[in-house]
Amino acid sequence: xxxxxxxxxxxxxxxxxxxxxxxxxxxxxxxxxxxxxxxxxxxxxxxxxxxxxxxxxxxxxxxxxxxxxxxxxxxxxxxxxxxxxxxxxxxxxxxxxxxxxxxxxxxxxxxxxxxxxxxxxxxxxxxxxxxxxxxxxxxxxxxxxxxxxxxxxxxxxxxxxxxxxxxxxxxxxxxxxxxxxxxxxxxxxxxxxxxxxxxxxxxxxxxxxxxxxxxxxxxxxxxxxxxxxxxxxxxxxxxxxxxxxxxxxxxxxxxxxxxxxxxxxxxxxxxxxxxxxxxxxxxxxxxxxxxxxxxxxxxxxxxxxxxxxxxxxxxxxxxxxxxxxxxxxxxxxxxxxxxxxxxxxxxxxxxxxxxxxxxxxxxxxxxxxxxxxxxxxxxxxxxxxxxxxxxxxxxxxxxxxxxxxxxxxxxxxxxxxxxxxxxxxxxxxxxxxxxxxxxxxxxxxxxxxxxxxxxxxxxxxxxxxxxxxxxxxxxxxxxxxxxxxxxxxxxxxxxxxxxxxxxxxxxxxxxxxxxxxxxxxxxxxxxxxxxxxxxxxxxxxxxxxxxxxxxxxxxxxxxxxxxxxxxxxxxxxxxxxxxxxxxxxxxxxxxxx
Length: 593
Prior knowledge:
Blueprint: E1 2-6, H1 11-20, E2 27-32, H2 35-44, E3 51-56, H3 63-70, E4 74-77, H4 91-98, E5 102-105, H5 110-115, H6 120-126, E6 129-132, H7 136-148, E7 152-163, H8 172-181, E8 186-190, E9 193-197, E10 203-206, E11 219-223, H9 228-235, E12 241-246, H10 251-265, H11 276-285, E13 292-303, E14 308-318, H12 328-338, E15 346-349, H13 356-363, E16 368-374, H14 382-387, H15 396-402, E17 405-416, H16 420-429, E18 435-447, E19 450-457, E20 460-468, E21 477-481, E22 484-492, E23 496-506, E24 509-510, E25 518-526, E26 529-538, E27 542-555, H17 567-577, H18 584-592
């Protein structure tokens, strides 16, 4: 099968090549205006199973003649910006239909994608597939919404967003597209009525948190003009709001873009297009933060019994795999076509041609993780609620410690650092004294706002408060020791539960992480028994405390408040709490212990 990729050596075209070059049944024609660049890119890819063919292709030239010379089976337009194609923006679509060649594009503009349906009749008559918007927006979002709303009687609100890694590398055409619509009115339907929105002048904050993984840091998202604003409304016309955003980082650059968009909306600046080169330079040069990104889709609706229902899907991509996701919809369709499952003829937005299962097959083997959450607020215990669908993957012994126990007993060993600073820190934190073998008792009390754990090592006792984080600490487990609060991610491994410190604060004032104590804390199971390991240190003070041991839960009435919140939570916390705030990172472990 011959695949002509227009813009094949560009950002998105190059990623399509990267995803498909291991397929020996393909010949990939890597095309653009510069033959030299196409040749250089093909040479750079080295030895591939697919045959790479550099070529010249000018979308403003004689398209019929160019297609006749190459005779591709499928054309993929990965160039853009589609918002700037002008009056002849569908010339390539028309040429492909005339030549009976299948056509896909990665258009990110709502107007362009909506207009492709005008060619449906001619595409059907020619027996070809014309799919527009073959990218994360709207292909992946539509697939996720179908999954989330499968048993809903009505969908009221759909929200979603993409937060790319600051090191993902953004193509110039993407920046030109954003600059062209920032702050300018976009007309669409909201709740069945005509509405007007202004991209990049509407914001929301959200934490992308696949269950059992370290969440992406709480991100500021701005409304963007993507095909979903219309394509999803056509699929779920009853939805009163469809909102799709982008959360670029660093946030300081994002806020600068928001400010410029407001200048356009206020009429003080006509367009940001003249600033596109500067925006492209800043986006790809001024980068810092974590090399990870993600995506979320959230659906609010009503179930078949008339009860409110809120669900969300989360995706986390580590390192260099995240930037590949927007091109995976093309990969999915091409691989299905190779297996004789070409989509039905016609011209349309590609919102029904790829399912979530298709994506999950492509995510396998990459550092891409997904998961679902039930956000309806049905009164789950603290740990099960934060862990979402990762809760069931934990060993039974760990779950027993976090869901129903009112008390736990066991034994532990405690080691304390010998330096002056470490002894002072341990004393201030209330850690127990060193002991080779000491009994542990943990009690917890739950109310509607969180849980209180009281731990006793021998005759030494102390307590802490655990609760679900809000705002910048959303999706994190917070543990408060006096004026100090630690926000931690609950990370579910194959046979353990770990706590990873993400934030800490003093009286609500955020503190820099480089000042925070280091922690290694986890819960695991050995010989059928719940075990905990907590180690707290500091770069300056050295080891502060290390304790490990085992616990066995007992079920009964909790000492205070409602029963059974998450014993394991309180439990490990208890143990963990032993190392108050300083140990937040291993607080979890501590609790376990």
